Structure formats: structure tokens, C-alpha cells
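lol forgot to send this yesterday, sorry. C-alpha cells for the thing we talked abt
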């Protein structure tokens, strides 16, 4: 299968070659049930569903969690993308199309649902702060997580603790963004290092960006 990450005319956290590198990780581990923490505008969600559909037809699930405009639990700084503040685009056509014609907030649950409508039977989108909602979700079936939500030390630690609690010793995959120097966030790196050291977990650095943890 040819792995080609598409942008769907939206903003994505995985620009250029990074989307294809992400798809290569999916292809290597070949999961059926994927969780993405930090859906943003749904581009990685859509590419993930396309990939899962190609490999499994309808026998897959995708779960996505994002604030989607709902309140965070406290005043933690999650390094929000600037784009979210006023949905600005460098491409003026996109600006007109999304802000004046559709008047659509691309980081809303409705907008992402629309993008993923072909897969409506397979997806579950959850609006909320992972510090509150992650512990309420049944994670037993999940075999691959893309961790790309809140980027503060406390949130990354919270998310890893809850994920690992359900995935421990099952050789499942947690792929964390913004760890290596290609897209470095110091609190993310520190939280991942502290967590993996404490739990004696091996970490693979992928292309100097992603930290891949096998549980
Ligand atoms: C870098 S973007 C995710 C990019 C996306 N994975 C992609 O590939 O396009 C981070 C997202 O995490 C969400 N987020 C930030 N803090 C969060 C939290 N505590 N709980 C849930 N989502 C959070 C933001 O709303 C934002 O949409």
C-alpha cells in the first residue's frame, strides 16, 4: 500500500514528510483500534481512518479526544497552536472559504465529524480535557495511541500514567509527538523521560521527533 498523508486543505500538526513518517509507524504496527489524543482539525484522524479502512475494511475503531473548545481543568499552559486563537491562514483563499463562506471552526467536534463522515460507524470523538476524561474511557481494546494533546509536564504525565495503566505488558504502542529536536518541547521530553525511567520502559526515538514506547 502506498503511504501518502493528505492535508485535506486543513491545518495539521504533521506537515510535509512528518505525516508519511506517522503513517509508516501505523503500517509497522498494523493496529486495529487507534486513539489520538489531540485531534486538532482532524487531518491525522482522517489519514488514520483511511489507513485503517485500507487494512481492515470496517473492522477498526478510531477514538479522538480534544478540548474542542471546552474548558481545560485549570490554567495549565498547554502550548496551544496560535492558529486556534483566530483561525488565521497564510492562504487567503482558505481564509475566505473557512472564515467567511463556511464560517466553520475547524477545531470543533462538528467540523471533524463532517470530515470523518465516511467512517461514522467506526469513530468516537470526545470533547474534554484528558486530565478529566481519559480515566473515564475504556482503553482495553486500544492498540496504538498517538499522544499529541496537552503539552505541559503534568498533562503528558497524567496521560501516560492512565494509558500505561491499561496497556502495561501488552506490547501496545504509544507514539508521542514533540519529543526529539525536530519538534522539541522541553516539558514533553522531561515528562516522557521521567515516566519511562520510573517504569523501566524502553523508548525508540523516531526520526529525531517522535518517542515510541512499547508497553
Ligand atoms: C498539536 S495539536 C494536535 C495535532 C493533531 N494531532 C494533528 O496531527 O493534526 C494539539 C491539540 O490538543 C488539544 N489539547 C490541548 N490540551 C488538551 C487537553 N488537556 N486535553 C485534550 N486535548 C487537548 C488542543 O485543543 C489541540 O487541538
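and heres what i got for the seq, position by position
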Amino acid at each position: 500500500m502506498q503511504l501518502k498523508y493528505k492535508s485535506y486543505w486543513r491545518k495539521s500538526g504533521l506537515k510535509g514528510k512528518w505525516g508519511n513518517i506517522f503513517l509508516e509507524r501505523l503500517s509497522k504496527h498494523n493496529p486495529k483500534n487507534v486513539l489520538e489524543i489531540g485531534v486538532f482539525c482532524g487531518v491525522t484522524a482522517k489519514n488514520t481512518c483511511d489507513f485503517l479502512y485500507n487494512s481492515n475494511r470496517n473492522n477498526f475503531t478510531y477514538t479522538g479526544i480534544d478540548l474542542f473548545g471546552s474548558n481545560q481543568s485549570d490554567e495549565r499552559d498547554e502550548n496551544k497552536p496560535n492558529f486556534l486563537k483566530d483561525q488565521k491562514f497564510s492562504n487567503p483563499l482558505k481564509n475566505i472559504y473557512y472564515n467567511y463562506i463556511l464560517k466553520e471552526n475547524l477545531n470543533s467536534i462538528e467540523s471533524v465529524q463532517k470530515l470523518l463522515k465516511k467512517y461514522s460507524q467506526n469513530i468516537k470523538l470526545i470533547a474534554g480535557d484528558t486530565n478529566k476524561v481519559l480515566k473515564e474511557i475504556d482503553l482495553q481494546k486500544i492498540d496504538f495511541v498517538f499522544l499529541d494533546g496537552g503539552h505541559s509536564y503534568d498533562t503528558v504525565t497524567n496521560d501516560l500514567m492512565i494509558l500505561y495503566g491499561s496497556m502495561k505488558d501488552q506490547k501496545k504502542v504509544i507514539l508521542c509527538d514533540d519529543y526529539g529536536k525536530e519538534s522539541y518541547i522541553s516539558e514533553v521530553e522531561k515528562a516522557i523521560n521521567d515516566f519511562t525511567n520510573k517504569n523501566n520502559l524502553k523508548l525508540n526515538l523516531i526520526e529525531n521527533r517522535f518517542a515510541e514506547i512499547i508497553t
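The chain has one domain: 17-79+107-214. anyway ping me if u want another try
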